[in-house]
Amino acid sequence: MIKRFIPENQWWLWLLVLIFTYTSGFAQTHPVVVQQTSQMQLIGTSVAYLKDTSAKLSLHDVLKPEYQQRFQNQGKVVFNSDATNAAFWFKFVVKNETNEDLWLKIGDNFASWYLDFYTPVKGDSLGKHTRPRLLGALRPQQNREFPSHFYCVRLAKEDDRQTKVFYLRAKGNFPKVYTFQVGTTYALTKHLNVYEYIVSGFVALILSMLVYNAFIWYSTRDKIYLYYILALLGILMNITFDSGYPLIHHPLLWKYFFWWHGTGFLFICLFAVHYLELAKNAPKVYYFIVLLMFFVIGVFPVLGLLTNNAPGLMIPYQIIVLLFYSSLLFTAFFLWYKGLRNARFYVWGWSFVIVGVSMFIATINGVLPFSLFTHQAMYFGFGAEALVFALALGDRLNTLKLEKEVAQAKNLQLVQEQNKVLGEKVEEKTKELRSAYEDLKQNNEELVQTQHSISLQRDKLEMQNKALFRYQNRINQSIEAANLIQSAILPATNSIEGFFAEHFVVYKPKDIVSGDFYWIHSLDQHKLMLIVADCTGHGVPGAFMTLIGHILLDRIVRIHHVDDPSEVLTRLNDEIYRVLRQEETGNNNGMDATALVIEKREAGDFQIDFSGAKSRMLYVDASDQALKELKGTRKFIGGFQMPDRGFEKKVIYLTPDSILYMGSDGLVDQNDIDRKKIGTTRLKRLLISNARLPLAQQKQAIVDTLAQHMEGTEQRDDILWMGIKL
């Protein structure tokens, strides 16, 4: 067994060498006498080490005097070294006085790739050593002598009280941290159980946070919880591996460290980017973090595969990770200072991590005294971080709930204001109908009753903010009443026939009431004004806007006698801005509109004055039967716009039997089951193909085409389309 260390026929020479070796060895290494049986004993200050830069020295070489003289005491409780390809030899001089088996705890999986432990032959006076006990993360795990994540070797049995010199060769490409401790089987078991409890507690905490947030993500489908789950997985895999407790033990994890380790940081990065909303709140930091992640998950894995130089890459890798952590921490401080409340949790969480990592680094470098807490501070730091981030997500959920309640309150206020406008309009229209149509007194009483019901409902809405949806049925009744009112203000069929002998109107609200309306007023015997408008929204909000638009048009045209279409649109824009107090409230409601003044001239033809607000008019000129188009100004009525831009007026002349088409965009924007719209091009083809038919048949063709197109899907907007033959 020992012939590989001592050549034959040279016993006298090696005897002198061993005498010198033991003399020099004991001069450099203080013997460790172990007497206590219940506690592990730190022996780091009594351990001598030799750095083998070639990584090729054998025990035969190390025992030579020139190498024995190079051993030096480390002088610290904990031995640590940067990542290197070199091997380290350690020398221990230990005497067992416990009357129990004596064990040495060497180190964990992370740094211990290859461990060769040499034990002197019992009872031999020539310093012979047994064959090395081969341990390490990249060696078969059945070689372990003690069931633990730490590598431990038995130094002496209970009856062995001889002072012995042990040698340990450690090789690995990662940074090395060794806390050499000796003790009895009982002391070692008790010591390692505490470590196991800490790691198990950490793993249990992370897994419980993971399961808890998985339930929340399943319930809310909020992506931030999915990113946090991935971040927890990254922390669980990286921290347990880096601290020597890998959840999965396979040599490939060490060989391809950069390929999988960076993925954990990627998960942590995804959570940080989305939680702090860096793309919006700090775009420069966002791009910087993306660049760092490119190096971590792209550059380092490729370099590690091509160069096979883990030690040379480890320091740049650690610098990149440090930049990543510090950038996120300082950015969180900055965003917290700027008023982002959620950032404070991120600052607290990473502060715990920084404190834990700093305590661990200070402990292995001898700045802080070695203890169970300081040596395992990383687990406490990352565990506290996981708890703080869980609190952060809970606070975020409460914040979103509060914002939703504020939005509901604003919507309720808007409904209340619109109800007030509706009530005033109902009252005004009721008075007009009473004075103009004595024969409709019965209908007027019903309208007054409807007005009273709406008032009662409005009062209840003001008092019951949070019970808004419980009164859906009454609101529907109110909408039905509003439909009656809206129908009453639209021009009656007989009034339209008084102007045009042949015409059609396709009027299809998306809901019960519509945001589209049309308005007609005779300016004189041969001249009339026609307005077709598409208000913001549909349903009740759109209907409110139609009432406002109708009132304002009555005021502008009937009272102030404005008969220029472009001026009518300009005044309508100003009045909506004023009536809705858009400068104060910030709302941007309004409408698209087409304004026409149609005048029959003495020559027998017609003059059409056109002005449009984000609208167009199609017409078929009877002289050539061609479909033509007039486009309005690309400006919306209402809201915040350039004040110096007016509405352009265009004038055309048409012969009798020419046809005018106009309406809202609800017709061309209607989609089919494949989400394909009717579109302007298809509408034009439909109009020109039916232009010679009576308008009643043209209307039916449009209605049939629309019904066929939207079969299997729902109507997406209010639809209004008119055709007029001059």
From TrEMBL:
Coiled-coil zones: 397-450
Pfam families referenced in this protein's UniProt entry, alphabetically: 7TMR-DISM_7TM, 7TMR-DISMED2, SpoIIE
Alphabetically ordered keywords of this record: Coiled coil, Hydrolase, Membrane, Transmembrane, Transmembrane helix
SMART domains: PP2C_SIG
Designated name of the protein: Stage II sporulation protein E (SpoIIE)
Molecular function terms, GO-annotated: phosphatase activity
Residue ranges annotated for the PPM-type phosphatase domain, each copy included: 495-726
